[in-house]
UniProtKB/TrEMBL annotation:
N-terminal signal peptide: none
Domain HD residue range list: 71-219
PROSITE patterns, A to Z: HD
Signal recorded as keyword: no
Gene of this entry: dgt
Native species: Anaerobaca lacustris
GO molecular function ontology, one term from the record: triphosphoric monoester hydrolase activity
Name of the molecule in the record: DNTP triphosphohydrolase
Lineage: Bacteria, Pseudomonadati, Planctomycetota, Phycisphaerae, Sedimentisphaerales
Entry keyword ATP-binding: no
Length: 394
């Protein structure tokens, strides 16, 4: 039923708007009702990898307080703000939203600390390091959407557009200093990028919006979460931030978004003023000193690190001893109540969810890395408990 979809040039009138995609890894026929980037939004939100973000840490491990942000909350905040900025600038709102929703889909359990745990594991396993030199959620996010994420019973891989995939790998969540971002090269070989530095800036203005808003979205919200958790008090926040940005997350985000729109309008780059850029940098530094390095945020880092490492080596041993679960057993040894359930989940991961994804040349450690990186905080902790802590038998 052609004719129902509005012209994208009408929807996104700026001459800098991204209208046509460079394509997908596997070509598909156009949709009669949705733009290509709108289709990506739906592919992302219906994927299992995206849905698991609601149980992955933003700053604090598996918060039991419903008012403390999870990774899912963060990506929704970013996508919403990115869509607002894109609309005001006449850019492609659908593309901005899709990148915003998926930009953190590569995060491991336990947030940025989880990245460090997995990087340490990688560097002690040369065959794995040859595949993935270090764990970067930006670079790994591309692996997730290309090879791992799936929509329930469908095959792995979301087959997203090049522009969304570029926005994911190029969003660089650890860039704390830049306040002016110009699009990077459109000739990147995305599949062969191994580090944040190689990814460079996003190739679209919509991706640049997400890269800058990512920091804005968490800078103020992390303060509110820290107040909710009792780590800091409102009066602890320096007067400079409260006087110039406001006292609530809404005021802080509003101040930055308005400044971004005014300073980026009609330009071929995305920026905030130098004054607010300095404030943003200093605000993030304040958060690092008083929130991210607090006992509440880092108090269980040692236990989490040991747990993830021990789990990795145990599951790798199980995978090798079972020859990647190629041999069927009757009766099934994993149906025994004394066997940790995580072994059965690993078996199902490789033999069902990711069936035929891993060639024989891939090291067993890559399979286990993918399995652990996809875990939620609570499932990771439960798995460690199941494997290493005995249960009562009588």
């Amino acid at each position: 039923m052609p004719g129902f979809r509005r012209c994208e040039r009408e929807l996104f009138p700026s001459r800098h708007a991204t209208i046509v995609t460079r394509g997908r890894r596997t070509p598909q026929h156009p949709d009669d009702f949705r733009t290509e980037f709108q289709r990506d939004v739906h592919r992302i939100i219906y994927s299992q990898s995206f849905r698991r973000l609601r149980h992955k840490a933003q700053v604090f491990y598996f918060p039991q307080n419903d008012h403390i942000s999870t990774r899912m909350d963060h990506v929704r905040f970013v996508a919403s703000a990115a869509r607002t900025v894109a609309r005001c600038l006449g850019l492609n709102e659908d593309l901005a939203e899709a990148i915003g929703l998926a930009h953190d889909i590569g995060h491991a359990p336990f947030g940025h600390q989880g990245e460090d745990f997995l990087t340490e594991i990688i560097r002690m396993n040369p065959p794995l390091e040859a595949k993935i030199p270090a764990f970067s959620h930006e670079v790994y996010g591309l692996r997730v959407v290309d090879h791992i994420a799936k929509r329930d019973s469908e095959k792995p891989g979301l087959n997203l557009t090049w522009e969304v995939r570029d926005g994911i790998i190029s969003h660089c969540g650890e860039d704390y200093k830049a306040y002016k971002i110009a699009p990077g090269s459109i000739h990147k070989d995305l599949e062969n990028i191994k580090s944040r530095a190689e990814a460079g800036n996003p190739a679209t203005l919509e991706g640049c919006i997400v890269r800058l808003i990512d920091k804005i979205a968490y800078a103020g919200k992390d303060i509110e979460d820290a107040m909710e958790a009792g780590i800091i008090k409102r009066e602890d926040v320096p007067d400079r931030f409260r006087n110039e940005l406001g006292t609530t997350n809404g005021q802080i985000i509003g101040k930055f978004i308005e400044d971004m729109i005014r300073n980026s309008n009609g330009r071929d780059y995305i920026c905030i003023s130098a004054e607010l850029g300095d404030l943003l940098r200093d605000l993030i530094q304040y958060n690092r000193d008083h929130i991210y390095k607090s006992p509440e945020a880092e108090g269980y880092q040692t236990q989490a690190s040991k747990g993830i490492k021990h789990l990795f080596y145990d599951l790798s041993t199980e995978l090798r001893s079972r020859d990647r679960f190629r041999d069927s057993h009757n009766p099934d040894p994993y149906e025994n109540d004394s066997v940790p359930p995580v072994y059965r989940f690993l078996r199902d991961f490789i033999s069902k969810d990711m069936k035929d994804v891993y060639p024989s040349g891939d090291p067993d450690e890559l399979i286990v890395l993918d399995f652990i990186a996809g875990m939620t905080d609570s499932f990771a902790i439960r798995s460690v408990s199941d494997v290493f802590i005995p249960k009562m038998t009588v």
